[in-house]
Design brief:
Largest interface: A-B, 33 and 33 residues
Shape of chain A: globular
Helix content of chain A: 10-25%
Largest sheet of chain A: 9 strands, antiparallel
Strand content of chain A: 25-35%
Number of helices of chain A: 10
Structural class of chain A: alpha/beta
Number of strands of chain A: 32
Oligomer: homodimer
Radius of gyration of chain A: 25 Å
Chain lengths: 546, 546
């Protein structure tokens, strides 16, 4: 089950960018004269080292382009260096002006130019069209996620291997933890901790800048690979509470949140995930989670995406601070009819960030075949939702616990190329996203009424499909083409001829010539149907079923 | 498809009670000296008739038993009669004291005795055990609902026929509208309207007491039959807005809500449903629906159950004023794996009040077979949720639109006896309700871990089931009995012998002798498995799958 990465030109270019970004720790340096839109402008200042700069020194800066002013917090980066980072969202001339309770840091001012974004920079990802995502420049973001919880806590060569794997993968979003986890520490123990002091005896009053500098760098490398970083701020995977990162006092938690937002908020690829399996963090209450959201929201001037991921107990994602829904529920994506349910409930994008994992683990949550993983992506996709991948493949005799889910490295499953294929199908689909067409009556089909239909048969194995579509958006004579998609073999086979819509009954249209489409009678077959001519019909505002 | 009501002794007794309750409109009369707990104490007072008593006169009363005081609003009932109704929740001596802005109604005081509730009076239904219901005295309430939207707007003989049908039915909850609906008016037009003036030209400043007296009486008759009244306060079924009941000014809406709560809040069988298909009421916004909940909650000292029912758009049932979730989504109860999803999301009882209807309607929302209706009840039940019935069977050649859903009368479908059978199974089940056992891994089984399992195979037709249960609550040697339930034929067949639990793997126990259960290979088969001996095992607090 070895996955062979395919090396492409774009991969090699991206990889070069990754290594170009590996820089030594910097001291205070002159502010840049220009930065691209949605890039990170960084102001580095030399300031006091006496006392405890993390607690004693306040620093912020106002950034203005004459039309609006954005105030952002700075942070102490160790060694007498203070930084303020800013992500401008418009081109032109911007100025800054600092505020501090210490003289050397206050009333610093300057001017810089924001240039147009470079080719692969589309800005931060936002919610679009209620259930979907788009970059700030309007480019649709079709999420194909994966999870590597603690890849940034591994030896440098492993971390670089993970980046190479990602560069060759279809994944455009990665879930990862700030804090280390117990799993996998026997062979690759963490060497950096977020606080000063020993890893097991943290000094909560002082951050460890080196820890965060490393994290910044890795997040920046993901950005340069075009990978969104869904950063998990808390998690329950410190099994014996040895590091004390799930038992911090509330004021330390809030300081940590503000510190990481000050450091990473200016990275356009950041998403904030309050937790993984929040309800398994037994030391916190639901009110704590509400508070974390509010602290992050107040600190982040860019309004990056915010979510929280569940274990057994689902958070109230109807809370106003939740931008999209990050769910664990593998059963929900076994078919589109289940997957769609959360959409209506939350009226936000639904991301199934954990649907069980591919693998051969002794635990049942990581025993999916690669085929089933691909199936779950397709089931979620036609339901108008998004799905996340990870894997836990253990090599025979390997006791190192070195698996993609926890540590990164290489992919061993067979789903990744199929997910690349799916991503291409999604990117060729409606810009506004795929939505259910007739949600409580025919969940197997999603798309855009009258324009585009993606019909997924899942584990059914039909040998024929009588051409029939729900009435919305279709008129007599609307013309469609059809293609048969084999989701595993990654083939798209056009069906000869065209289909001309003819009203069948109150609800549906069929082909005027009464044609059916012959199907291969196997698992994982989809149909793609697109309008190629004729006029569109109206989309009814009537109650369902009338 | 004619349903034949079965006449039983209890039915005849109940029916006698119904007709005993048909009393002429009363003038002010002496307050009763005693009333049973959760009965309705009614104080009738003679007061002013000048001006507009609905707007000009305020009336309330404090009821106290020395330990607590409950303040309830009175209402004008026409003809110079003002009433204050009160539902005491404790036995003993209670006093009342009135307040009014008019002299004849104020400072009235009195004493009465509250006796123990009579045999079939268990008090109002409340949420119990998060996902379930119980009467105030602790008796579990196992909901088997039906819907007759506007049965109280029909000729007296039809309304009485509806009551006889209910008396012989399994239904212990009825959804019904306050307002008339357009459907079915051609043959049975409404003759009473809630406001003075013509039906199509309401005088919003004056209620029509006769309308509400009729409604009170019918709700009381349901109470006497043991049927909870899920009273729908607004609906979209005034197709041309001819009655103006969906276009009232906000202050009239609020006054209407307070008036109906003052009249009916003291009926123990009342549930408040803000709407049917709320989102199809195009004249209102979501903020209006939030407000209605808040008005009702503020007016109702008894905290009766509150819900709202959707068309296409699901309300935010996570709002704190929603006591349980009233859903339309037929697809969700086609299998337990879908049905359970809303439980986690809302952490409240889930009632699928509309799952499509039995019938032969031209519209697809009323084309279920009786078998499919029974199936949906079972699918919802093992998922730990509750389901509602209604039917729309049109007789050949009948153009009267006289169907149970809208008008009441008789049941023509075949599901009712099967739902009576299911209700008996539910009542014989765990008092605290049926919950999923292993929710995201085996949704076909619900019950109580280690004690009781109801496994429903739905449209599968297995011929054998290898005895295997999830680990929670089971230990080595726990002994179980099993029965095969045919949900359509209404038979319960014991499986000979017993099953002795033996650990199979990390997750499950099987029978020590390796036994399977032979099944009849047909649709709609369930298994009931109950612990008969041995010790129970622990219920794990571990994350799922560990």
């Amino acid at each position: 089950m070895t996955y062979l990465p395919r090396f492409s030109l774009s991969y090699l270019v991206a990889l070069a960018a990754v290594f170009a970004a590996v820089l030594p720790v910097r001291a205070a340096e002159p502010a840049p004269a220009q930065v691209e839109q949605w890039g990170t402008f960084e102001l580095a200042l030399t300031g006091p080292t006496d006392g405890n700069p993390f607690l004693d020194v306040t620093l912020s800066a106002d950034f203005s382009n004459g039309q609006k002013t954005v105030t952002v917090d700075g942070f102490y980066d160790g060694g007498g260096v203070y930084r303020v980072r800013f992500m401008p969202d418009a081109t032109g001339t911007w100025t800054y002006f600092t505020h501090s309770n210490r003289w050397p840091l206050t009333q610093k001012r300057g001017v810089f130019t924001v240039t147009a974004p470079s080719k692969d920079n589309h800005g931060p990802v936002r919610v679009a069209n209620t259930y979907h995502f788009a970059y700030a420049d309007g480019t649709p973001f079709k999420q194909i996620g994966t999870t590597c919880y603690t890849w940034t806590h591994r030896p440098a060569e492993v971390e670089e291997q993970t980046l190479r794997t990602l560069a060759a993968s279809p994944f455009n979003k990665l879930r990862m933890c700030v804090f280390p986890q117990t799993h996998g520490t026997s062979t690759m123990p963490p060497t950096r901790f977020p606080f000063a002091g020993e890893g097991t005896k943290p000094d909560y009053a002082r951050f460890n800048p080196e820890f965060f500098q490393h994290l910044d760098r890795r997040v920046g490398q993901l950005r340069d690979l075009g990978v969104e970083c869904d950063l998990i701020l808390f998690h329950p995977y410190d099994d014996e509470h040895i590091w004390g990162l799930d038992t911090m006092p509330p004021e330390v938690e809030d300081r940590y949140l503000r510190y990481i937002v000050a450091r990473l908020g200016a990275y356009r690829n950041i998403w904030w995930s309050m937790a993984n399996e929040y309800d398994f963090v037994r030391t916190k209450t639901e009110a704590d989670w509400d508070r974390y959201f509010q602290v992050v929201m107040a600190a982040d001037p860019y309004d990056h995406l915010r979510s929280i991921h569940n274990g057994k107990v689902i958070y109230n994602h109807n809370q106003p601070w939740v931008t999209h829904v990050s769910l664990q529920n593998g059963l929900a994506v076994t078919e589109p009819g289940k997957a769609q349910i959360y959409r209506d409930v939350y009226r936000r994008p639904i991301v199934y960030d954990e649907v069980e994992y591919e693998g051969n683990h002794v635990y049942r949550w990581a025993q999916l075949t690669s085929r089933e993983m691909v199936h779950r992506f397709w089931a979620g996709t036609v339901a108008g939702t998004y799905v996340g991948h990870s894997e836990y493949w253990v090599q025979p005799g390997d006791t190192s616990e070195f698996v993609w889910l926890g540590q990164g490295g290489v992919l061993r499953g067979e789903s990744a190329p199929r997910l690349a294929f799916l991503r291409k199908v999604m990117e060729d689909g409606p810009a506004g996203g795929i939505d259910p067409i007739d949600k409580w009556w025919e969940p197997r089909v999603g798309g855009k009424p009258g324009e585009y239909y993606l019909w997924y048969f899942g584990h059914e194995k039909p040998t024929s499909w009588p051409f029939q579509l729900y009435r919305d958006g279709i008129a007599e004579g609307t013309i469609f083409s059809a293609e048969i998609i084999d989701t595993w073999e990654m083939t798209i086979t056009p069906v000869p001829g065209e289909f001309v819509a003819k009203k069948k009954d109150r609800y549906s249209f069929v082909d005027a010539a009464g044609r059916s489409i012959a199907l291969p009678g196997k698992d994982g077959i989809a149909l793609r149907i697109r309008r190629t001519g004729g006029t569109q019909g109206e989309i009814s505002d009537k109650p369902p079923g009338y």
